[in-house]
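Dear colleague,

Thank you for sharing your sequence with our group. We've completed the structure prediction you requested, and as agreed, I am returning the results in plain text so they can be pasted directly into your records. Please verify that the sequence below matches your submission; if there's any discrepancy, let me know and we will rerun it promptly.
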Amino acid sequence: MRILILLLMLSTTAVANLNIQHWTTPEGAKVLFAQTKGLPMLDIALNFDAAASRDGDQFGLATLTNSLLGTATRYHNEEQIINAFESVGAQVSQRSLKDMAIISMRTLTRKEALKKSLDVFTEVVTQPKFDQKYLTREQKQTLRSIDAGKQSPATVAANAFDKAVFGEHPYAHEKIGTEDSIGRIAIEDIRKHYQKYYVAKNLTIALVGDITKVKAKQVARQISHGLNMGNKPPGNSDVEPLAKSQVLHIEFPSKQTHLLIGQVGINRTHPDYYPLYLGNHIFGGSGLTSILSDEIREKKGLAYSTVSYFTKMQSNGYFLLKLQTKNNQANEAKDIAIKTLKKFINNPISTEQLKDGKDNIIGGFALETASNANILTYLSIIGFYNLPLDYLSSFTDKIEDISIKDIQSAFNRLIDMNNLVVLSVGQSK
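Please find the predicted structure tokens below.
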């Protein structure tokens, strides 16, 4: 226990002392850099506002574009690119979400290794060659993923919940697209999407590792210099609150029912962000120790686990409570879950619950920010969502300052028990 406390203290100190430096490249890319010493590694994340919410009516376009980066450039084919990264031990990955299209690299900081990996990485990002044979391959893989999703009750439920909560908003559709939309995407569509959104002014660069600020500026400039300057696209509109409740059931041949209950949530700059964060942790975000788990799992044995959380994006995300239970227990689980949420909103929590929730978050947050990879994620979030630079260092203080009344007031302002989406996927009989 003494060792654990010491580790938490050291981790908290490291976060508090983390010097996040920021600047903008001449081409307009935003850069956030944190120097960490001890490991001769550099982590780079390029975050473009080029993900699924920019698909327009070509669902899956952003994900396909992101997946094709690294398949070929003007000078190298896919095999040559893979071999070049492997020769210096560099690791490259891509990911496309609702808001962010990400391409990242971890590399050694040894001079020769860094130069080669950075040169190839820059070429991949700034000089892609979109080839029809690779698009065809990715389309086939995507169609297989779509088909697999139809066999998964969890995927069916998640997609249906997005549509119910987001309505006509760009967040509503599946980020990988549909069978119909994927087949209609042409190579020229990929090129146009890249040319419009993979530009310097639409880029946030996060850098974490054992390099100097001078070197970090050189790295960031090399990447942004290869991109067109372009323009940052206007933000998507906010997600409108639900006008009425929706009770939806999707019949599915499964032994268990997936139950999802929720509504429109918040973005990362919402004024009630911190009390909602802490309140949700106490209600359903802390796993087996949460109020929700106690009511559903411990007292009634209706589900192995149940959880609640907020998705936090540029526009408002959603608040979601979800669980899996036996088909013949679905109605009972639904009633208890809704009753538990209503009770949480209308009745103050105890002083002990508040203290336990704060202690759990503050201790866990220290460990979450102890690795370069996690710091890189936070820098990406801070830069992409325009959060204050002291977000990490002030997080625990803001959690510590929250009162019982703050939590109850925040949940009362946000959660509308009369306008919930209640979705079940399973066998009704």
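Summary note from our side: The domain at 20-225 is CATH 3.30.830.10 (Cytochrome Bc1 Complex; Chain A, domain 1).

Kind regards,
the structure core
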